[in-house]
Design brief:
Number of strands: 2
Structural class: mainly alpha
GO molecular function: ubiquitin-protein transferase activity
Number of domains: 3
CATH architecture of the largest domain: Alpha Horseshoe
Radius of gyration: 23 Å
CATH superfamily of the largest domain: Ankyrin repeat-containing domain
InterPro entries: Ankyrin_rpt, Ankyrin_rpt-contain_sf
CATH class of the largest domain: Mainly Alpha
Distance between the termini: 96 Å
Helix content: 55-70%
Protein name: Ankyrin repeat-containing protein
Strand content: under 5%
Strand order of the largest sheet: 1-2
Shape: globular
CATH topology of the largest domain: Serine Threonine Protein Phosphatase 5, Tetratricopeptide repeat
Order of helices and strands: HHHEEHHHHHHHHHHHHHH
Keywords: ANK repeat, Repeat
Pfam families: Ank_2 (PF12796)
């Protein structure tokens, strides 16, 4: 009887790729398992355009990869056919994700052909290109994403871009103030407050104000300058987030956490707590 030849079916890895879902792929991207990600999208190219929920939006695998900051993983997905200009429901491209979560990938994405739109020009402080985008009809108030152009300029700390947008009629929205406070960029915070940004406005989802954002910012003179500016503008020390945390609560927790660590950081946290507690007493 002739010997049976084993059927050449898919390997275990190929079977795993065939069973892949968008959520499983997102897990592989988060783990930076480049080999498994490439195998999955090669077996099922449709996965490149599937989305999962992140930060209240729908992100493709490329958006997720950019957020990890792993350029090798990003290049692997681009090589497999991912599109640099893919947009989420809120209009964010992978470049927008890089601006907020992985600044080190901004220039590499531009080098690979990402469009330098108004959001990127505002963040990078490229006032000439930003002005050209505005002259071409891009809104100075909101771009096509969920963050205003002013918000991107505030996040990037671009004073010139902030001034340009305000001069062109951009509304000093509370989101931009929170982004400048979180960075923290004192000069931008001062500009936005002077333009009328509402100091006590709460984020609709988290309930965070600009003061909460500032207290969570990296320790240092810039953070203290921002907190002082917000307090001088009338920020409420006792205002709480949706989880019930005040700015003082957040500062105390951070101080307790860092007390056993670096002395410089610990002193900075204690200084912040003292500043906020003094403000609470005098109100």
């Amino acid at each position: 009887m002739p010997e049976q030849t084993p059927s050449s079916g898919p390997s275990t890895g190929e079977l795993r790729a065939l069973r892949m879902t968008a959520q499983r792929l997102a897990g592989l991207v988060a783990a930076r398992d480049t080999e498994a990600v490439v195998a999955a999208v090669q077996a099922q190219p449709r996965l490149l355009t599937t989305t999962v929920e992140r930060s209240g939006d729908d992100w493709t695998p490329l958006h997720l990869a950019v957020a990890t900051g792993d350029l090798g993983l990003v290049d692997a997905l681009l090589g497999a056919g991912a599109q640099l200009e893919a947009t989420t429901d809120h209009g964010r491209t992978p470049l927008h994700v890089a601006l907020e979560f992985a600044p080190g990938l901004v220039n590499p994405l531009l080098e690979r052909g990402a469009e330098l739109d108004g959001a990127a020009a505002a963040y990078l402080g490229d006032s000439a290109r930003l002005a050209a985008r505005l002259d071409a009809g891009e809104s100075s108030v909101r771009d096509d994403a969920d963050v205003s152009l002013l918000g991107w300029a505030a996040l990037g700390g671009s004073v010139d871009a902030v001034r340009l947008l305000l001069d062109r009629g951009a509304e000093p929205d509370p989101g931009a103030l929170r982004m400048a406070a979180a960075a923290p960029h004192p000069e931008v915070v001062d500009l936005l407050l002077a333009a009328g940004a509402p100091v006590g406005a709460r984020d609709p989802e988290s309930g965070r104000t600009a003061l909460h954002a500032a207290v969570d910012a990296p320790a240092g003179p810039a953070r203290l300058a921002v907190v002082r500016a917000l307090l001088a503008a009338g920020a409420d020390v006792e205002s709480t987030t949706s989880d019930g945390a005040s700015a003082v609560d957040i500062a105390r927790v951070a101080a307790a956490r860092d007390r056993a660590g670096d002395d410089t950081v610990s002193r900075a946290q204690d200084d912040l707590v003292d500043l906020l507690e003094d403000a609470a007493v005098t109100r």
